[in-house]
Design brief:
By secondary structure, this protein is mainly β. The protein has 2 domains: 32 residues, no CATH class; 56 residues, no CATH class. This is Ribosomal RNA-processing protein 42.
Length: 89
């Protein structure tokens, strides 16, 4: 299968020039990080959840599981259903 470039040559040059000059297009230098907040168990009705804030990006994700036996005659078999919902705020 032929390799498909992820970035054009101009985009690659822009990225490399920014790294070499220690500058990002949002004004931060290459070692400056955006503020990060990660909180878990933020949705009480989910089996697992988290809230992530990274700079101006906010993401909330919840995961639920449901376990059930499919047939009483086959106690070693059953069903697991997982649901993952995410929201970009």
């Amino acid at each position: 299968m032929p390799r498909v470039p992820i970035a054009s040559e101009d985009e690659r040059k822009f990225i490399v020039d920014g790294i070499q000059s220690n500058f990002r297009n949002d004004g931060r230098n290459c070692r400056a990080y955006r503020p990060l907040l990660l909180a878990t168990d933020v949705i009480t009705t989910a089996n697992g959840s988290c809230l992530l804030k990274l700079g101006g990006t906010v993401v909330m994700v919840g995961v639920t599981f449901e376990f059930s036996r499919a047939n009483q005659e086959k106690p070693n078999e059953g069903r697991i259903e997982a649901t993952v919902d995410g929201l970009l705020l």
